[in-house]
Amino acid sequence: MTIASVLKHLKQIGPGAIVASATIGAGETVLAVRMGAWGGYELLWLILLAAICKSFLTLYLLGRYSAVSGEAVADRLIELPGPRGWLLWIILILEGLVAPLVFVVIAVPCGQLMSNILVSIGVVISYKWLALGFVSLAIIVGMTQSYQTLERSQIVVCLILLVGTVTATLLTGPDVKEILRGFFRFGHVPPYPDWLPSEISNRSQLLELASVFGYAGSIPMNYIVYSNWVLLKGWTVRRNGSSRTDVSQALGPLRWDVGFNVVLVLLVTGAFTIAGAAILNPLHRIPNGFDLLTEQAHIFARISPAMIGLYYVTILTALWGTLNALPEIYARGAHSFLRQLLSKGKELEYRKVMNIFGGLMLGLTWVFIWTETTPIFMIDLVALFSTNIGVGLVCLAALWLDRQLSPEDRVSRWIWWATIGAAAVINLMSLIAAREVIGKYVG
């Protein structure tokens, strides 16, 4: 493959960048750093496992179904065996319940970080107002921009993330041997160190790991909406008697896009984990309470005080990208679902769904920020209902969708069995998260 052909494929990347940018939020900037701070390099395997199960296998099967069939995922899931549209209703309800929390768990740490920055220059503004302003602007811009604008802006966000996090991590001088070892020690979980604050040391390790695994991926609506974007891009396979080889070639743009998403999520999430292990672990520091982002500044300060500005730009860009993409993801997903679920759904306008959903999320986000609900509590709920249970159901649905294709159009046997394994892993994590959340907050 020539450099020219590689550049040609890279220019086609778009939907994968949106999925990656929306994925890299609280999980990477908070939970991955926390995990590196207490677990060192020994839990990198969890990031790799999540990337394979979700960013690669689940996303690829869903995008591939639309590319081969020419129809959106929701259009076929309405026919899933059982009560009409039961899975669409479950995902819609789960996402509707946790959507405001997704915005809040990102906005609150951003507000706290911006408040600390302003205090350092003698300006005092409540983190609540800064969080409200940050999330409101992101939602409003997300509601009014076109898909093409979103795609281009998210590619820029991804490039900033990649350069900023990887550069900073390399400059921390991490232990390469331990990194490689940590990526492949599947199932190994080190004990909590004795220096951890009680708020974390009293927290179940299984809950911490299940939450990290959940956030090292995206929300179920994001994976499903990816199939809509595949159709918008025109990455469909037109059979017309084409051979299997021709179909494989036609899927090239999709594979490059999914590959970009996997690499970016793995590199950025891994970089945050490694940075936590290299810098915060020796300093016995860890993100905690409401102030979940300030500790990460030590990573850049250890390199050079001048690098702290790069940290602020990288973190706020990452979280802006997530907040900015969510209105499109939720609205397009809800529109796609409701068109199938409602008797007059075919007449439903996308822009109307966007305005209603965006306005509702904006209002609820304000309420949750103002009531000072504990961020980690909200992170746990989102990880349980959305990024674990919801994605587990979507992965199972992806397997069912592939079986709806003609035998010659289905994925290869090894991808099929690998995705069955991925579904088992994601749903096992869902069970662990459910057990631990109920035990911690209910039991």
Briefly summarize what is shown.
By secondary structure, the protein is mainly alpha-helical. The protein is built from 19 helices and no strands.
Structural description of this entry:
The protein is mainly α and 443 residues long. It has a single domain, classed as Amino acid/polyamine transporter I. Helices cover 77% and strands 0% of the residues. It is built from 19 helices and no strands. α2 packs across α16, α6 crosses α17 and α11 crosses α19. It starts with a helix and ends with a helix. The model has no long low-confidence stretch (mean pLDDT 85).
Keywords:
443 residues; mainly alpha; Amino acid/polyamine transporter I; 19 helices; 77% helix
Low-pLDDT stretches: none
Task: Characterize the overall form.
Answer: globular
* CATH topology grouping: Amino acid/polyamine transporter I
Q: State the helicity in percent bands.
A: over 70%
> Mind summarizing the main beta sheet?
none
Number of domains: 1
State the end-to-end CA separation: 57 Å
CATH superfamily: Amino acid/polyamine transporter I
Number of helices: 19
CATH architecture label name: Up-down Bundle
- In percent terms, what proportion of residues is strand? under 5%
CATH top level class name? Mainly Alpha
Radius of gyration: 21 Å
Mean pLDDT score: 85
**H/E element string?**
HHHHHHHHHHHHHHHHHHH
| Number of DSSP-assigned strands | 0
User: Which structural class is indicated by helix and strand composition?
Assistant: mainly alpha
